[in-house]
Amino acid sequence: xxxxxxxxxxxxxxxxxxxxxxxxxNGHEVVLLEKYIDKSQLLEAVxxxxxxxxxxxxxxxxxxxAAPKLKIVVRAGAGFDNIDLEACTERGIVAMNTPGQxxxxxAELALxxxxxxxxxxxxxxxxxxxxxxxxxxQAYGNVGRLVAEKAKGLGMDVMAxxxxxxxxxxxxxxxxxxxxxxxxxxxCNFISLHIPATPSTIGSINYGLISRMPKGGCLVNTARRExxxxxxxxxxxxxxxDIKYVTDVAAICQEELDEKFPxxxxxxxxxxxxxxxxxxxxxxxxxxxQICNYFNTGCTKFQLNR
Length: 306
Fold this sequence. Notes:
With 306 residues, the chain is α/β, with parallel strands linked by helices. It contains 12 helices and 12 strands.
């Protein structure tokens, strides 16, 4: 089988070598399409691919239509909003992600952002410590649990809200289950977002929630840009000059936010939550292994479009 690795942002060389080694041991060929600059290059490359590995690259209905032999596509990472699951399902193509492989990298970044904002973006002036502060985690999945673990190690009081995770599980981890999302925002000095972009979450982080935060509150977004209602975020920042927002996914209006609220807002130059050597390796190797397991045994453990 031919496995196409299509990445505008390439995997590290060690990860590529690992992908090739896993595929080779299972009798498969790996073809690379790296740093491509036009969609036509991807459409041409998938024409004879049996499997596809991507990072943040968009696997649209057009890409699916151009790949008549495609049987499986794996997003090397947790988020999968870049894959058209409906188009995959219509063609009988299995779509997967690699949950948990980037989690530690994202969790470390979230904590680093909290410290960065607490210390006035490392500019002169008196900052504050995060020890003893209350952290609210929105979505208690792989990343959320790691953020909680690390935050507790730094002396933070951790609360979480996730309607899909039993309160007993949070309590076992020493995390306080929030009675409601509104209650959590109203109590926490920091809120760390780990929700996916879905019809129910897009634009859901709005004025009503953010404005509930205590004085000096800081919203941390290492999730998705789309979950933020940007117009209402700007209104909160205007009405509450004590509120801060730090993000790994720049807003559409990021330049405007930076200009209006330089002491309240910070965005990384590019999404870097998973940009560590370890996460790069873990996600790439997991993607290759999942493809080989699917071809060898039909394993669909991480299938998204069941």
